[in-house]
C-alpha cells in the first residue's frame, strides 16, 4: 500500500524532474560566418548582397527517440536575432529524461496565435514581427542591400509570413542528430545548430534580386522562400556532459 | 480494495490542493478591481469578443478611455484616437473623406464609425485586422495616422505619473506593456454600444413609439432592398463585398485583394453598419459621398459592374424618388442620440 502511495507521489513529481537542453545557434551565409552590414555575399543568381537584419521565430520543439517516439516540449516561442547574442542561446526546459536521435521544431508561430490578439514576451508586437495592416506574424525576416535590387537604396526586404490557407508559411524542421542526445539529472546537454541564410535564395526555388528584391505580404513567393529556408538548419555538434 | 481507493482519493485531493495553492499564489497580486457588466439588450447573438481573456473592470475602462483621448499616443502628441473618432459622429470623423494623421499627412480610407464592435470578427475596410485587441496597433504605428513606434510609446507612458497610477489601478502594478495597453483600449471601445435608437424602441414595442407613415414606408423598402447585406439587428452582416462602387484610379484601392492576394477579392470592402448612418457621413471606404442621396443614386444607376460585383446588387437597386425619401426617413430612426451623448464615452481632457 505504501508503495502505491510512493508511486503516486513519484508520478506527481515527474513534471519537475525533467531536464534542460541548451541550443546554440550560429548563422552563416554559404558557409561563411554571417557578418551584418560589412560582409558581401553572392547568391546563385549572381547577385552580390549584404545582410543588415536577420531574425526568425522558432517554436514547437519536440524530441524523438530512436524508436520514433516523439515528445513535445512545453510550448515556448523564441525570436532568434543575429544582432542579439542572447537570442541565439535557447534553453529548452522540461525535457523528459531519455536518449534522443532527432530534434524537431517549427520555424514560425502557430496559426492560432496569429489571430488571438496581442501576445507578450517574444511574441510582443513590439519586436516588429507582427504585420499591422494584415494581422499575423512575420515568421522570418531578412533585410539587406544588393546592387541588383531596384528598390530605393537598393534594399532587400524579405518579410515572410502568412498563416491562412492557401498561403501558410510555418515550416516544420526535423534534424537527425549526429550522435544521441542524452537528457537526465547528470547531463548538461547541448545541441549546436547552424542556420545558413543563403538557403533562403539558393534552395529549390532560386531567387534573383533583380526580379524579386523583397516580398512583404502573404503570397506564393513567401511560401516558396519558406520552402527554401525550411532547409537552412544543420546540426554541428551534440554535447552530453 | 477500499483502502486502496481511499489512498488514491487522498493523493488526488492532495494534488488538487497543491494545484489550487499555486493558482492562489498567481493571483495574490491581482488588483482590487470593480468588475463591470456590459448592459446589452436580450435577443442579440452572443458576442464574438471573448471577455474571458479581458474581463471588463471600471479601472480598465477608465484607463482605456484615458488612452483613447490622449494625443501622446501619436509621435508629435498631436492626434489621439478620439481626434478622428468623434462621439457626435458615432465615433467616425465628421466631414472628413479620408483619415488625417500627424504632420498634416492623410491616409487613403475613411474613418469607420465605432460601435457594437464585440460582434465584429475582423476590422478595417478590408478586414485585414483579425482581432479587436490588436486593432489599435494599426492607427498607432501607421506613419500616415499616429506615426508612433510602439517601443517609444511604452516608454513614454511608463514615464508618465498619471499612467503609472492608472495602470496600477487596472492591473495591480505600474508596468506598461503593449498587451496591457491594447487590452485597456479594448475595454473602453467595447462599451461603445448602440441599441437605443427610435428603431430599437419601435422593435421593442415601447409604449407610445411608432414609425411615421414615411418611416414605415422606408422600413419596407429597406427590408426589401437593403437588409440582405445591412442585416438587422447590426445593420451589417460584417461581410466583405464589391457593391459596384466605381474604381478610382487616383486612389488605386484594390480592397480585400491587398490582404488575400486573391483576384476574386478585387474591390471588395466591408459592409458598414447603417446604425447612426446619417450622423457619420461621408460614405464609402474612401468617403467620396458626403450625402446619403449620392449613395442611393450610386445603387440606382451609378454602379461599375466588374467581375467581382456582388450577385445581390449586380442588377443595381432601383429606387424611386419616393423610396429614397422614405428610406432617408427610416435611416433617421437608426440614429441613437443616447449613444451620441453618453457621458461615459465622452472626451476626457488630458493636460500632462
From TrEMBL, chain A:
Pfam families: MbnP. Keywords: Signal. The keyword Signal applies. Residues 1-19 form the signal peptide. Residues 19-214 form the Copper-binding protein MbnP-like domain. InterPro entries: MbnP-like_dom. This is Copper-binding protein MbnP-like domain-containing protein. It comes from Chitinophaga ginsengisoli. The lineage of its organism: Bacteria, Pseudomonadati, Bacteroidota, Chitinophagia, Chitinophagales.
TrEMBL record, chain B:
Keywords: Heme, Iron, Metal-binding, Oxidoreductase, Periplasm, Peroxidase, Signal. Heme c 2 binds at residues 226, 229-230. Its cofactor is heme. It is found in: Periplasm. The lineage of its organism: Bacteria, Pseudomonadati, Bacteroidota, Chitinophagia, Chitinophagales. Residues 213-335 form the Cytochrome c domain. Transmembrane segments: none annotated. Gene3D superfamilies: Cytochrome c-like domain. InterPro entries: Cyt_c-like_dom, Cyt_c-like_dom_sf, Cytochrome_c_Peroxidase/MauG, Di-haem_cyt_c_peroxidsae, MauG/Cytc_peroxidase. Its main location: periplasm. One of its GO terms (cellular component) is periplasmic space. Binds 2 heme groups per subunit. Heme c 1 binds at residues 81, 84-85. This is Cytochrome c peroxidase. One of its GO terms (molecular function) is metal ion binding. The keyword Iron applies. Binds 2 heme groups. It holds the Pfam family CCP_MauG. PROSITE patterns: CYTC. It comes from Chitinophaga ginsengisoli.
Amino acid at each position: 500500500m505504501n508503495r502505491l502511495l510512493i508511486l503516486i507521489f513519484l508520478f506527481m513529481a515527474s513534471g519537475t524532474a525533467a531536464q534542460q537542453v541548451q541550443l546554440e545557434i550560429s548563422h552563416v551565409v554559404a558557409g561563411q560566418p554571417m557578418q551584418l552590414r560589412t560582409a558581401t555575399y553572392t547568391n546563385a543568381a549572381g547577385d552580390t548582397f549584404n545582410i543588415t537584419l536577420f531574425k526568425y521565430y522558432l517554436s514547437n520543439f519536440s524530441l524523438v527517440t530512436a524508436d520514433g517516439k516523439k515528445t513535445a516540449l512545453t510550448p515556448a516561442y523564441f525570436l532568434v536575432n543575429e544582432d542579439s547574442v542572447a537570442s541565439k542561446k535557447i534553453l529548452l526546459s522540461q525535457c523528459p529524461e531519455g536518449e534522443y536521435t532527432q530534434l524537431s521544431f517549427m520555424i514560425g508561430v502557430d496559426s492560432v496565435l496569429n489571430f488571438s490578439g496581442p501576445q507578450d514576451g517574444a511574441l510582443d508586437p513590439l519586436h516588429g514581427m507582427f504585420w499591422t495592416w494584415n494581422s499575423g506574424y512575420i515568421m522570418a525576416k531578412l533585410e539587406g542591400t544588393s546592387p541588383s535590387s531596384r528598390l530605393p537604396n537598393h534594399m532587400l526586404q524579405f518579410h515572410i509570413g502568412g498563416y491562412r490557407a492557401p498561403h501558410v508559411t510555418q515550416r516544420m524542421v526535423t534534424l537527425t542528430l549526429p550522435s544521441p542526445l542524452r537528457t537526465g539529472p547528470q547531463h548538461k546537454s547541448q545541441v549546436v545548430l547552424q542556420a545558413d541564410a543563403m538557403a533562403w535564395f539558393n534552395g529549390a526555388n532560386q531567387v534573383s534580386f533583380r526580379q524579386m528584391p523583397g516580398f512583404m505580404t502573404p503570397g506564393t513567393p513567401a511560401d516558396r522562400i519558406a520552402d527554401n529556408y525550411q532547409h537552412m538548419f544543420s546540426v554541428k555538434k551534440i554535447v552530453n556532459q | 480494495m477500499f483502502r486502496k481507493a481511499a489512498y488514491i482519493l487522498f493523493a488526488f485531493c492532495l494534488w488538487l490542493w497543491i494545484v489550487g495553492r499555486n493558482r492562489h499564489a498567481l493571483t495574490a497580486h491581482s488588483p482590487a478591481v470593480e468588475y463591470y457588466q456590459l448592459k446589452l439588450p436580450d435577443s442579440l447573438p452572443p458576442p464574438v469578443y471573448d471577455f474571458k481573456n479581458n474581463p471588463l473592470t471600471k479601472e480598465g475602462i477608465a484607463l482605456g478611455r484615458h488612452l483613447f483621448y490622449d494625443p501622446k499616443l501619436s509621435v508629435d502628441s498631436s492626434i489621439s484616437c478620439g481626434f478622428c473618432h468623434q462621439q457626435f459622429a458615432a465615433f467616425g470623423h465628421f466631414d472628413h473623406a479620408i483619415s488625417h494623421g500627424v504632420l498634416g499627412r492623410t491616409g487613403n480610407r475613411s474613418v469607420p464609425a465605432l460601435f457594437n464592435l464585440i460582434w465584429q470578427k475582423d476590422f478595417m475596410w478590408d478586414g485585414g485586422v483579425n482581432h479587436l485587441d490588436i486593432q489599435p496597433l494599426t492607427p498607432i504605428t501607421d506613419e500616415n495616422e499616429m506615426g508612433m513606434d510602439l517601443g517609444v510609446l511604452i516608454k513614454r507612458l511608463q514615464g508618465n505619473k498619471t499612467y503609472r497610477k492608472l495602470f496600477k489601478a487596472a492591473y495591480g502594478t505600474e508596468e506598461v506593456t503593449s498587451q496591457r495597453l491594447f487590452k485597456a483600449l479594448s475595454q473602453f471601445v467595447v462599451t461603445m454600444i448602440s441599441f437605443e435608437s427610435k428603431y430599437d424602441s419601435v422593435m421593442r414595442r415601447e409604449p407610445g413609439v411608432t414609425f411615421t407613415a414615411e418611416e414605415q414606408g422606408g422600413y419596407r423598402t429597406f427590408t426589401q432592398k437593403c437588409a440582405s447585406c445591412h442585416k438587422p439587428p447590426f445593420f451589417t452582416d460584417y461581410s466583405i463585398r464589391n457593391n459596384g462602387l466605381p474604381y478610382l484610379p487616383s486612389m488605386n484601392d484594390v480592397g480585400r485583394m491587398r490582404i488575400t492576394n486573391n483576384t476574386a477579392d478585387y474591390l471588395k470592402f466591408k459592409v458598414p453598419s447603417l446604425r447612426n448612418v446619417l450622423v457619420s457621413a461621408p460614405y464609402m471606404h474612401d468617403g467620396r459621398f458626403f450625402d446619403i442621396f449620392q449613395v442611393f443614386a450610386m445603387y440606382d444607376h451609378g454602379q461599375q459592374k466588374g467581375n467581382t460585383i456582388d450577385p445581390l446588387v449586380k442588377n443595381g437597386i432601383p429606387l424611386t424618388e419616393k423610396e429614397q425619401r422614405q428610406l432617408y426617413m427610416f435611416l433617421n430612426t437608426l440614429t441613437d442620440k443616447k449613444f451620441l451623448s453618453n457621458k461615459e464615452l465622452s472626451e476626457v481632457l488630458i493636460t500632462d
